[in-house]
Amino acid sequence: MLYMRPSPPIPQFNIILGSLVNIKHYPTSISLSKQFESKGITPDIATLNILINCFCHLGHVNFAFSVFAKILKMGYHPTIITFTTLIKGLCLRGQLRKALHFHDDAAALELLKRIEDHSIKPDVVTYNTIIDSLCKNNLVADACNLYSEMIVKKISPSVITFNSLMYGFCAMGHLKEAIALLNDMKMKNINPTNHTFNILVDVSCKEGKMKEAKIVIVAMVKAGVKHDVVNYNTLMNGYCLINEVTQAKYVFHSMAQNGITPDVRSYNIMIDGFCKKKMIDEAVNLLEEMKCKNMNPDTVTYNSLIDGMCKSRRIDYVWDLLDEMHDRGQPANIITYNSLLDALCKNCHLDRAIALFKNMINRGIKPDKYTYTIIVDGLCKGGRLKTAQEFIQHLLVKGFHMNVPTYNAMINGLCKAGLFDKALALL
């Protein structure tokens, strides 16, 4: 096409560039547009919109605004696509706070104001893009103001608008306001989706407000929205968080009765719940059930069981689980090692704990803030204060950074041994 004379019309080039964007080949699209411009082929507004989109997806918002300047310089009129793409680019880069304070002419909300200066009416997609980003940045009041502006301008909100606002209210802990939006949706004849209800059920459960979660579920049934595995998982997790494992078990078994197949997360929630209540046999039964159903237990599954067995002083069974975990291609991670180290230290197997710690380091697994505390606390309580001091010295020399609980464990050990000067020095 580049070497045809006369050159094909620019829309034909745009089709190719647009196709490349659809398969996320943004750099290729930018490169090809430069090639045809170097051949004297003039881009049109659609070409430049495609370029803006490419730069925004690549995170080069400044370049996107350079293209915007080129649009104005060439005498083209920016379209709603131009503005929406630029706004989305800003939102993806998390520049909403800058936008709110109008420190930059390229701010999202400033752009929204400028749309009308070009006699372009912003649509629901434009508003939704900004409202969603405001809510994700905990700027719910500003999102609500923008929502009110939509209503005044007779731009009908969509289910996406309400989902974003619900998420924002939930993130700020305003559950009642989030639930109240369901009535607003009903008044505007907007049908909530499964995702709408999942937002509300999830936050209700995480806050331990199971009564509110049930109200939302009832509303979901009334709205004719079918339950899915995510709803059940959220409810089960909520009950487990408030130690009502029996209720979670009831929800788990009711899934099959309602034609919903539990997934790996469903089993993980129940296994973790049982383990935290020291109902290890029930947790092991679920693991076996997963295998019978040809479901692959993941690292989370094994970590829950290993932690549960360690805390129930059934550490002898743990090593077989660790081998099984390895055989199934599920690598042990820092959570696995912390559970094992904690169990070994609490059962006075300190030499094995230190050996395991070294093995973990050799495997390239980086210790976290809990690892150091477990080892130091175990050594101090096991009467091996000198080893604990040497361990801390070794970590400091190696450049490891310890946190307050690790220092607390060491200071506590020194105080109990009557070594107050050393404790004060460490403080």
Structure characterization notes:
This protein has 427 residues and is an all-alpha fold. Among the domains are: 1-122, Alpha Horseshoe (Serine Threonine Protein Phosphatase 5, Tetratricopeptide repeat); 356-427, no CATH class. Helices cover 72% and strands 0% of the residues. The longest helix has 13 residues, at 10-22. The chain starts with 9 loop residues before the first helix and ends with a helix. Residues 98-105 have low confidence and may be disordered.
Query: What CATH architecture of the domain at 1-122 would you give?
Result: Alpha Horseshoe
User: What percentage of residues falls in helices of 4 or more residues?
Assistant: over 70%
Structural class by SSE content: mainly alpha
State the major sheet. Answer: none
What form results from the Cα inertia axes?
Answer: globular
Q: What sequence of helices (H) and strands (E) makes up the elements? A: HHHHHHHHHHHHHHHHHHHHHHHHH
Mean pLDDT: 85
Uncertain segments are 98-105
Keywords: Repeat
Protein name: Pentatricopeptide repeat-containing protein
PPR repeats: 44-78, 123-157, 158-192, 193-227, 228-262, 263-297, 298-332, 333-367, 368-402, 403-427
Family: Belongs to the PPR family. P subfamily.
